[in-house]
Design goal:
single chain, 463 residues, alpha+beta, Barwin-like endoglucanases, 3 domains, six-stranded mixed barrel, five-stranded antiparallel β-sheet, 20 strands, 41% helix
């Protein structure tokens, strides 16, 4: 198309000359008396002019915008959907060869010759005005208000698509429209003004048919010379086009190498982005797990509060029972002292304390016991972190140790305790949801923790 534009100007000049000569000859012929000769000559000249216009390819083309990428990196996809495979990347400012745009997707032809799709939302189209004066209207029709005027070679940039030969764009802060047939996507080429040659030839009103014939012969000779010049110009243009094609091939190779380098860089950037997304997903999973753990803790706290009330009632009853038992023990002690005075007591073997047998003397209370493990996520840590108790015990390294989390106001931190069904343990940890008669019991694994769950048990504080 650029080649045709380069040779169109001399061809137009040739046609203008032929029409001018034709007009002058026709004036002379119309003054002659030979009607048949006039008609024949007129037809011949009109045929020559028509052949020159259509034979030399002087025609106009519909406006096609210059499309440019407006985002940092634009995905090139195999099909017009965001789920389609990405086959390449385009960078900001890249000029795209758009074949067709529909439903927000532009079909493009890549340098490799392959056709693909890009989102039209991340491109803009550039048009240049071809008319001397072009009306800018408030609507997409010739009856709407004229907002202003554009002059030849003015530039229009828009992100909208052509609809019914009208294009929408922003004009002085307003939505405006212009008629597309008066636009082009090719930037204007600055040329040196041509020197106009005025011909001083005048045809006398009294010229005869012979003079008209001579004028026709002169016009034919000049037309032939112009045609030869046009042929030479076309041949020169073809030679220039061949040279440009070779240069373009070299440029394509260089562009291909550059595109491959950019594609590799884009792939590396994409891999880094995926790694970052995976890290964010892990962080989100941790946050969700922490939120779920907090929700579970709150639910557990509510349940523990309810059970604590019951435990307090049970504790009161137990204290009364303990007081009664203490009185009985005191009476029994007195009885034993009396018995010793009468007869030496026989030594009895002392039963060895086990994990399941309750110690004989201690402060006893009923509590709600919930199982937990040394899993970092379960304890509000990040995956891979070391979980430590409030007293500094490394639970990650010692998941099998006997340890419970307590409310220090109920069971002093560091106390040795006996837990029903669990055995002797250390009160070595605390927790935000552990208030009143509630404890958490450390289990070695999730299976054991699930089996224990949550239950009401007896706890004895040994020291």
């Amino acid at each position: 198309m650029e080649l045709l534009q380069n040779i169109n100007d001399p061809l137009r000049n040739l046609c203008n000359f032929m029409f001018s000569a034709n007009k002058k000859i026709m004036v002379a012929i119309m003054r002659s008396t030979k009607t048949n000769a006039m008609e024949a000559i007129m037809k011949k000249f009109m045929g020559i002019a028509t052949a020159a216009v259509f034979g030399l390819g002087i025609f106009t083309t519909s406006a096609k915008a210059e499309t440019i990428v407006t985002t940092d990196v634009l995905n090139v996809r195999e099909n017009p959907t965001t789920e389609s495979q990405v086959v390449g990347k385009l960078l900001d400012g890249y000029k795209v060869n758009v074949l067709h745009t529909e439903n927000g997707w532009s079909k493009v032809k890549l340098n490799s010759g392959k056709e693909a799709f890009i989102s039209a939302d991340y491109t803009k189209d550039t048009y240049y005005v071809t008319a001397n004066v072009l009306n800018v209207r408030a609507g997409a029709n010739t009856d709407s208000e004229i907002l202003g005027k554009l002059k030849q070679d003015d530039v229009i940039e828009t992100t909208h698509q052509v609809e019914n030969d009208w294009i929408q764009f922003e004009y002085n802060g307003k939505t405006a429209y212009v008629h597309v047939p008066y636009l082009t996507g090719k930037a204007p080429v600055k040329v040196q003004p041509a020197v106009k040659v005025e011909k001083a030839t005048k045809v006398q009103n009294t010229a005869k048919a012979v003079e008209a014939t001579k004028a026709r012969e002169v016009a034919e000779t000049q037309a032939k010379a112009k045609a030869e010049e046009a042929t030479k110009a076309r041949e020169a243009a073809e030679a220039q086009a061949t040279a440009k094609a070779e240069e373009a091939a070299k440029a394509r190779e260089a562009a291909k190498a550059q595109a491959e380098a950019k594609a590799q860089a884009a792939a590396e950037a994409q891999a880094a982005a995926k790694a970052e997304e995976a890290a964010k997903a892990r962080e989100a999973a941790k946050a969700q797990a922490a939120a779920e753990a907090q929700a579970a803790a709150e639910a557990q706290a509510a349940a523990k509060a309810q059970e604590a009330a019951k435990a307090r009632e049970a504790a009161k009853a137990q204290e009364a029972a303990e007081a009664q038992a203490a009185a009985k023990a005191q009476e029994a002690a007195k009885a034993r002292e009396a018995a010793k005075a009468q007869k030496p007591a026989t030594q009895q073997p002392v039963a060895k304390e086990t994990e399941t047998s309750a110690p004989s003397s201690s402060r006893e209370l009923r509590v709600v016991a919930t199982a937990y493990t040394a899993d970092p996520l379960e304890n509000g840590y990040k995956a891979g972190d070391q979980v430590k108790s409030a007293m500094g015990h490394n639970l990650t390294a010692n998941p099998n140790m006997k340890l419970i989390a307590v409310d220090p106001s109920v069971i002093p931190l560091g106390s040795k305790v006996w837990v029903e069904g669990y055995g002797v343990a250390i009160a070595g940890d605390t927790g935000g949801a552990i208030k009143g008669n509630k404890i958490d019991v450390l289990m070695p694994d999730k299976g054991t923790s699930s089996n224990w769950g949550r239950k009401t048990v007896t706890v004895k504080v040994l020291n």
